[in-house]
Write a structure and sequence with these properties.
By secondary structure, this protein is an alpha/beta fold. About 30% of the residues lie in helices and about 25% in strands.
């Protein structure tokens, strides 16, 4: 099982809660004529969990590789926990834990052997403590002595997560951290990420939009190498198409009701279906006008009235043009 283990940050001592741990300015990367990342600016503070969203080919993985120092940008700068990634690359990289989308590992090694290798490579002082802590966090006790190549996809993903955590980093960059995990494992990883974010800044890429709504404090949608929007998940949902739409079901048609409802200032449009038994009202200002609608429906044969909340996937499709790269 996953367990919570207190984490110590590798950020400089003068960085306090809420201070900036990741700062990127003007990040740009070309692959031949293709501009994969186009001048991205990014700031993430301690305690934040930033969900990095975008269609395949949008530039998410390229941006994450530049933030972690695995890929040199063509232009722009990155600071990690106060360290400039170009001027002080080792100090900056020591503050980062990175889980790539397809995290490489030595399949013939046991889980314990691989984590010891990572801990030794990072020059950790207390290797045994570091291994024990990362194993407990990632829930790897039962497979500790198994060769990695014999593990399920879910366990391999958890090994990748364990190596990213092993040095108690100030910044965690996680590319599809729950890929291959079953629903129970996903919930436990979500809990772990939230726990770790108390002392760290977390950036995670995911295609699971409800994952962003569940655990992220911010969400950023990137498309064609550019940031389209950066806001809280709640603010994004409020911008989604059909947010706060009102849906009414009647026991029998009321031919004049739709026309009457259209006269209200807050009502932008009314759609009628099923012979007038079902009505859908779009708010003019995006606000929730349920109380006003209920007052207007007094005396009508109402079966059901519902408020439709916005969906993050609807906004995602709207901002990215519904395309897949």
């Amino acid at each position: 099982m996953f367990t919570d283990v207190p984490a110590a940050s590798t950020a400089p001592a003068d960085l306090a809660d809420g201070d900036v741990l990741v700062e990127a300015r003007g990040l740009t990367k070309h692959y031949g004529p293709i501009k994969a990342v186009d001048g991205i600016d990014l700031t993430v503070r301690r305690g934040e969990i930033l969900g990095f969203l975008g269609p395949n080919g949008a530039g998410k993985t390229t941006a994450m590789r530049m933030l972690t120092g695995f890929l040199r940008p063509d232009a722009g700068s990155v600071r990690i926990a106060g360290h400039d990634l170009t001027a002080r690359p080792l100090a900056a990289r020591r503050a980062v834990g990175y889980l790539p989308e397809n995290a490489p590992a030595y399949g013939e090694m046991t889980v314990h052997g691989f984590l010891r290798f990572v801990a030794d490579a990072r020059g950790l002082d207390d290797v045994d403590r570091a291994i024990a802590a990362s194993v407990a966090r990632a829930g790897l006790d039962e497979v500790l002595q198994q060769p990695i190549e014999t593990l399920s996809k879910g366990f391999k993903r958890r090994v990748g997560l364990a190596q990213a955590l092993i040095h108690d980093p100030a910044v965690l960059v996680l590319d599809e951290p729950t890929d291959g995990l079953d629903p129970n494992q996903k919930v436990l990883v979500h809990q772990l990420i939230v726990e770790l974010a108390r002392e760290s800044a977390v950036i995670l890429s995911t295609h699971i939009l409800d994952e962003v709504e569940r655990i992220c404090t911010r969400a950023m949608i990137i498309d064609r190498g550019r940031i389209e929007v950066d806001a809280t998940p709640a603010a994004l949902v409020a911008r989604a198409p059909r947010h706060n739409e009102l849906r009414v079901e009647l026991a029998e048609p009321r031919p004049t009701l739709a026309a009457r409802l259209r006269t209200f200032d807050w009502c932008a449009a009314v759609e009628s279906a099923d012979g007038g038994r079902r009505l859908t009202l779009a708010p003019a200002d995006g606000a929730n006008h349920l109380a006003a609608l209920l007052a207007a429906l007094d005396g009508e044969p109402v079966v059901d009235v519902r408020v439709h909340e916005g969906r993050l996937d609807d906004l995602f499709r709207q901002l990215t043009g519904g395309h897949a790269s």
